[in-house]
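sanity check this:
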Amino acid sequence: MTDNEDRANDEAADPVVGLLLAAGGGRRLGGRPKALLEHRGQPLVKHAVAALRAAGCARVHVVLGARADDVRARAALDGCVLVDNPEWEQGMGSSLRAGLASLAGTRSGTRAGTGAGAALVSLVDQPGIGAPAMARVRSGYRDERSLVSAAYAGVRGHPVLLGAAHWAGVAATATGDRGARAYLREHEAEIALVECGDVARPYDIDTEADLVHLEP
C-alpha cells in the first residue's frame, strides 16, 4: 500500500479534525496569553488538546498567536498541526480563518488539504467544556454539509462542528471577535443543536475575576 493510500484511509477513518483557537493575548488579563494559563497543572492549551483527542479527534490543529514561541516551548503539543496567526490581534475571526485555511490547504506554504469532512471548533479559554460535550457534538457529524452546535439550556454555544462545505462561507464572514456567529445565524435552520448543559459549563476565562474557575 502506498503512502497516499495510507493517508486516504486515515482521513476516511477520521473525518472530523479538532480545531483549537488559542491565539488570544489576554488583554483583560494583563496581557497573559490564555493558552498559557495553568489549569489542573498544565497550560490551558494542552488541557484543551487532550479534551479534543479524548472526544475522538485524532488530528488536531491549534491556532497560535500571542507569544506563540513561548506556547510552543512550554506546552507539549506533539502530534498537533500548529498554525501561526500573525493577525491574532484582530480577533477570533482571524484565527478561525487561519485554522480553516490550514484544514483546507489554502494557507500559504501548505501543500495539501487534510481531506477532513468537518472541523470541531473549540476555544482555549473554556476549560469547563471537556471531552464529553465535545464528543456529543462530534457524534452529530454526518457529512461535509453538517452543522452541529452544543447548546446550554437551549442556547447555542461551543464547541461547534463545521462541515467542510461551510468553511468558505464561514471564513468570508468571520471578522473581529464574531467567529462563525454571523454565518451560523444565517444558517440557523440547518444547525443540529446538542444539549450539553448536563456535562459542561460554558464559562469563558476573560477577566481576572474569571480566574476563580481555574483549578491548581
